Amino acid sequence: MAEEISPNYSRKFKDLMNHYSDIKKDSKRHEHFESLVQVLQSYLVGVALPNEAELQGIFGRICVNSFSITDLDQNSVGTGVYLAASIFDHSCEPNAYVTFDGKKLICRALVDFPTLDWTKLRISYIDILNSREERRADLLHRYYFLCDCVRCSRPEWPEEQVGPVQCSNPNCSETIFISPEALEHQEFEEDSNSKNIIVKDDIKGEMENTLQTANLDSTGKMLPFAEDCCRNIYEERKFNTNHKDLQEEGKSMAITCPKCGASNPMTPERISMYHSVASFCKEQLELCKDHYYLDLCEKGLERATGVLHDLNLLLVKLQDAAFEASISLGHWEKASCYGISNIEGLRHYYGKNHPSLGMVLLKLGKILVYIHRCSEAVGYLSEAEKILRASHGTSHPLYTQQLLPLCAQAREEMQEEVMRLAGGRKMKSISGGPLFRTMCG
To answer: Which helix (H) or strand (E) holds 420?
Structure first.
């Protein structure tokens, strides 16, 4: 049995990579495989099963090539292997997006292509709301490859690598980055006359060319170690270039805010505070890995407030988790607060046209309609409509059955609200029918 991709191209199950050696080395997956073999043998008594090597090949193909089938609200409802769709490679900057209508898989391009070339379509296998290091580790663990997509091949954004902190001026919203060398690539020495720091370089910039030439493989591709070293050097130069106003106060490194001019000393105390808060936030996120707990999210947010900037990746992830947890508990006002405050952060990391951002905007718009804040809802739903029209298409049930009716309802309620405020007829109450229950609890 084969699935046709184009008139001259089709795929069979045996065409898929079985990752035999990878599964053998993966203790958890191999243990799972052995358990499944025992289950098969106990249920299929007297049935001639394929030998263990063949069974493991089948298991490996399913593990690595299966899709999580989701409902309209992105909840997983099953798993399926789609032979034709297995052609899609991964990118952390995808140019295509997969949705489901029942068990039917639909893939739509997010950008315009002059001609359709299946080999150039890239989808995201994972949630990209993670740092480069975390994304690559996740892909290596689950799919057995080290990602070298466009986003992973270039140096990490400072927001992902270091994470911005708040400016020392409480009225300023500018991002202030602790120097990467202060966090990772430097030695700290206590000055005898003060409790501040002296910074020592670990890697000199002139090593860059040596690393680039000495660590290429036979294809000319840079090896991971060299790539990481060069990335560190790039970030050091980038930091020094972007912070020419870096100055020393005695023996303490300080950054002058480019927006308000406030001095931000990078003292050991401040760096220690950053590490403490970042570590605590990571712990809370790890505890919320399989289920969102609002109390844990709020503990992390409480510690992070006033320390981490709104664009800090940890803060963005915590607020996103708090948003989802609030929805599951029916705390609509809280959910609206977390959703609104996090939109800029999600837009920053996902990009302004990513379907995941569109889904959050749809949820937020729905909540705002539900709590009678329709004038705000219209803006978020309009932005969601532009994104989801491209990712899902105008015939997808999410677009036709949820988004369009909700947009119409929000505009109608907003007009009635305006009329009520102007002395017109009283705004009718909103029903909590199926439209709301699908996404809001």
So the answer is: helix 404-421
